[in-house]
Write a structure and sequence with these properties.
Helix content: 40-55%
Bound molecules: flavin mononucleotide
Number of domains: 1
CATH topology: Rossmann fold
Strand content: 15-25%
Order of helices and strands: EHEHEHEHEEHH
Distance between the termini: 16 Å
CATH superfamily: Flavodoxin domain
Number of helices: 6
Length: 177
């Protein structure tokens, strides 16, 4: 069984990025499980003085989840042409560990915009030595849609197939490493 951790960069209750990841988790290939990380809002702000023995419990939990996982999927909004602080903060807790090193990772997109954040996130994650699965990107345009519309779009057969295909491709990428 391939185990994947998915992280949404948005804390909004009606987040389109979180909805996309929940739909991905429901549309995985048979031999694969996607667990959506729910602790982003509980992570303290990263401080290098709080590593080692002093690492906060939520950061320890995140580090252990990423360490155990076979791969990571991130779906993240863009705020003011950048990566939202909460998402970057989660990654900062992983920088000086082995958790990210060589860990397969993939970005998926709930907005057709957000090009600065996509590029910045990919650069940060490559720098952290995540093994980025770059192709093909999954983009389902949910920007500005209400929850009911989001659910309807994510339930469309073509989108369910696209989600299965991209996770299948990611699983093959992981197995080929
Ligand atoms: C404070 C703030 C700043 C934003 N800045 C940008 C931006 O620079 N570029 C962009 O494409 N979208 C921007 N957006 C729009 C969000 O990226 C977009 O609504 C996103 O899809 C929301 O994701 P969510 O539904 O998962 O919360 C901004 C939204 C907020 C709340």
């Amino acid at each position: 069984m391939i185990e994947i951790i998915a992280i949404s960069g948005s804390l909004r209750a009606a987040s389109t990025n979180s909805a996309l990841l929940a739909a991905l988790a429901a549309n995985t290939p048979a031999d694969c499980r996607v667990e959506v990380y729910d602790g982003l809002g509980r992570l303290p702000i990263f401080n290098p003085d709080d590593e080692g023995e002093r690492t906060p419990p939520e950061a320890v939990r995140l580090i252990e989840m990423i360490t155990r996982a076979d791969g990571v999927i991130v779906s993240c909004p863009e705020y003011a042409h950048g990566v939202p602080g909460g998402m970057k903060n989660a990654l900062d807790w992983l920088v000086s560990r082995d958790a990210a090193v060589g860990k397969p990772a993939m970005l998926v997109h709930a907005s057709p915009r957000s090009l600065y954040a996509r590029a910045a996130l990919a650069e940060v994650m490559r720098t952290m030595s995540f093994a980025m699965y770059e192709e093909p990107a999954l983009e389902i345009a949910l920007l500005g849609k209400k929850l009911g519309e989001v659910e309807a779009i994510l339930a469309q057969p073509a989108n369910c197939q696209a989600m299965r295909d991209v996770v299948q491709g990611f699983v093959e990428f992981m197995r080929g490493r």
